[in-house]
Amino acid sequence: MFKKILIANRGEIAVRIIRACKDMGIISAAVYSEADKHSLHTILADEVYSIGEAQASSSYLNKEKIINLAKEIKARAIHPGYGFFSENSYFIKAVEDEGIVFIGPSSKSVALMGKKTDARRLMMKNKVPVVPGTTEPVNNTDEGIHFSKEIGFPVLLKASAGGGGKGMRKITSAKEFGSAFEATKREALKAFGNDEVYIEKYIESPRHIEVQVLADKYGNYVHVYERECSIQRRHQKIIEEAPSVFVDDKTRKKITTAAISAAKACGYYNAGTIEFLMDKNKNFYFLEMNTRLQVEHPVTELITGIDLVKEQILIAAGNKLSFSQKDIKV
Fold first, then answer.
1. For the chain (length 330 residues), average pLDDT per consecutive 10?
2. How many Å is the Cα radius of gyration of the chain?
3. What are the catalytic residues?
4. Among 64, 119, 141, 172, whose CB has the most other CB atoms within 10 angstroms?
């Protein structure tokens, strides 16, 4: 087990990880920027270190500072929390190269699932249903209109590197496509540093169902049931419910099996979430994979009694899952 963990985050998630560390007898090392000097996580942690100015690029997003600090204080592992570097495959690879354990998936798995078009192709190859759409970025308006007519309007134009509900536009006709295409590319470039966009068939009044998975480094996989986050504003989640009242036992079996297939397809280990859209007939389609702990993880913890943060740490330390699928009850 790790003696000390560096927590490369702040706020609620840093406090959550500190709590798990205390329960497990692990020294928690917190970091802070000038803006967070007196935040709760700096009070609760066993050790506290300044990593720079208030601007995130000078502190929480400064790869060298975080890795060098971990080496300096002899922290054997880094927990990224969510946001910041949690899904940055380049950061994870740099951590791995230094012989430090990243508490999360491998850099390879994150890279495979990080770009939506690549993830869609991987899912199709592994027979996980995906929303009808392009498997490559759309290069221009004419190409986009042609494909949209093939699958039928309305369509959804989405940023290939997107997430969090940003870089998405519903298009109902060919005449709207040109302006929407340019606007989405601009938004994608600003938000994600990548202006590639792709097309998906727009599903009317969908349910948004996400499946929590856990996997160790020995090929053992379990799902920890689903959460429903259909109540949204501007494609961003407002309310999380678990388990979903819309998903019956037969559908639950199918969607959780698909989620585990998705995780296996990218050689995943640690905690992750596979998101699906579900239509009114309970057909479901892979949307994306969140290769990290999610903000809403306590919802799953409440219904199952499983401490996901502790499991993350145990898996990262090389432990096998201590339970099987049949042991997980709601």
1. 98 98 99 96 98 95 98 99 96 99 99 92 97 91 95 93 82 94 92 90 94 99 97 88 97 98 98 97 96 97 98 99 96
2. 20
3. 292
4. 119
Helices and strands (H, E) in the chain, number of each type? 11, 14
DSSP state letters, 186-216 = HHHHHHHS---EEEEEPPSS-EEEEEEEEE-
Task: Output the DSSP codes for 15-26.
Answer: HHHHHHHHHHT-
Q: Please give the Cα distance from 171 to 7 (Å, whole number).
A: 42
Residue 216 main-chain phi, psi, to 5 deg: -95, -175
Q: Which domains does the chain have, with CATH numbers?
A: 4-103 (3.40.50.20), 132-201 (3.30.1490.20), 205-327 (3.30.470.20)
User: Global pTM?
Assistant: 0.91
200 forms beta bridges with 133, 156
